[in-house]
Automatic annotation (TrEMBL):
<dbReference type="InterPro" id="IPR050118">
    <property type="entry name" value="Pur/Pyrimidine_PRTase"/>
</dbReference>
<dbReference type="InterPro" id="IPR036390">
    <property type="entry name" value="WH_DNA-bd_sf"/>
</dbReference>
<dbReference type="Pfam" id="PF09182">
    <property type="entry name" value="PuR_N"/>
</dbReference>
<protein>
    <submittedName>
        <fullName>Pur operon repressor</fullName>
    </submittedName>
</protein>
<keyword id="KW-0805">Transcription regulation</keyword>
<feature type="domain" description="Bacterial purine repressor N-terminal">
    <location>
        <begin position="4"/>
        <end position="73"/>
    </location>
</feature>
<dbReference type="Pfam" id="PF00156">
    <property type="entry name" value="Pribosyltran"/>
</dbReference>
<keyword id="KW-0804">Transcription</keyword>
<dbReference type="InterPro" id="IPR000836">
    <property type="entry name" value="PRTase_dom"/>
</dbReference>
<comment type="similarity">
    <text>Belongs to the purine/pyrimidine phosphoribosyltransferase family. PurR subfamily.</text>
</comment>
<dbReference type="InterPro" id="IPR015265">
    <property type="entry name" value="PuR_N"/>
</dbReference>
<comment type="subunit">
    <text>Homodimer.</text>
</comment>
<feature type="domain" description="Phosphoribosyltransferase">
    <location>
        <begin position="108"/>
        <end position="263"/>
    </location>
</feature>
<keyword id="KW-0238">DNA-binding</keyword>
<dbReference type="InterPro" id="IPR036388">
    <property type="entry name" value="WH-like_DNA-bd_sf"/>
</dbReference>
<dbReference type="InterPro" id="IPR029057">
    <property type="entry name" value="PRTase-like"/>
</dbReference>
<dbReference type="InterPro" id="IPR010078">
    <property type="entry name" value="PurR_Bsub"/>
</dbReference>
Length: 281
């Protein structure tokens, strides 16, 4: 059944946003709406322009018989800065300070809007990388990993501290916790990662870097590649971290050394917008 342009545009936009990083052939939309390819091309031009003007993402067009259109979500610098400013103000609330210099963030990391924006910021950092999976450890980083995986349209993998019978065969590594210097274990099912996968590691908070280093070692045990490590926030740490500063990005830096919370921006924007500007131009 032939569709009106207004109906096509609405459904086409929904489909592309629900299937990011997926190449959709022109013939798919032509058959879906009973329309000529020339009409679909005009529709995609409208969607592409709207996505760009509103800062929603890129709509890449791949020419040729095997080509099509691919939606790549991102966040513009201005929107990211506004969001980071709002969350920074919320984190600076002194009532969030917990014993041991920790900071309460669970209320923020349980809100869908915040998780979606965190996912957009981190996903934008890796626009020019082929990512096959997002990995985290079984802590508060799981919702963040899921948000990023949704935007990248890849699986998210959870490493645990103990194996389960439903995991089947597993691979494990021992690592030294950066903050308390304890030997801990990290386990992942052998079926979780195909060899030579490109993996993005994410977590909610960086202190000593032991968990991130353990995840990196686990990725290598699967003969896979770590393409990046990203955190929602990092704390001030006086010891030697298990990962170096050039290996990771964070959205926030939190200092609680003087029994007061002081929050500043992390280095998340260092690797984002140069690539994005090039793609837009």
């Amino acid at each position: 059944m032939k569709s009106k342009r207004s109906a096509r545009l609405i459904d086409m936009t929904r489909y592309l946003m629900e299937n990011p990083h997926t190449l959709v052939p022109l013939t798919f939309f032509a058959e879906r709406y009973g329309s000529a390819k020339s009409s679909i091309s005009e529709d995609l031009t409208i969607v592409r322009q709207t996505f760009r003007d509103r800062g929603i993402g890129l709509l890449e067009t791949i020419p040729g018989a095997a080509g099509g259109s691919k939606f790549i979500p991102y966040i513009l610098k201005e929107e990211a800065e506004q969001f980071v400013g709002e969350i920074k103000q919320a984190l600076n609330d002194q009532s969030r300070l917990l014993p041991g210099g920790y900071i309460y963030m669970a209320d923020l990391l349980s809100r869908p809007y915040i998780l979606r924006q965190i996912g957009r910021i981190i996903a934008t950092q890796y626009l020019n990388h082929d990512i096959d999976a997002v990995m985290t450890v079984a802590t508060k980083g799981i919702p963040i990993a899921q948000s990023i995986a949704n935007l990248l349209n890849v699986p998210f993998v959870i490493a645990r501290h103990d194996s389960r019978i439903t995991d089947g065969s597993t691979i494990s590594v021992n690592y030294v916790s950066g903050s308390n210097r304890r030997i801990e274990k990290m386990v992942l099912s052998k079926r979780s990662l195909p060899e030579e996968s490109n993996v993005l590691i994410v977590d909610d908070f960086l202190r000593g870097g032991g968990s991130a280093a353990g995840l990196s070692d686990l990725v290598k045990e699967f003969n896979c590649n770590v393409v990046g490590i990203s955190f929602f926030a990092e704390g001030v740490y006086n010891g030697e971290r298990k990962i170096s500063a050039d290996q990771y990005t964070s959205i926030f830096k939190i200092n609680t050394e003087s029994d007061k919370i002081s929050v500043s921006e992390g280095n998340y924007d260092n690797k984002v917008y140069g690539y994005l500007d090039n793609k837009e131009n």
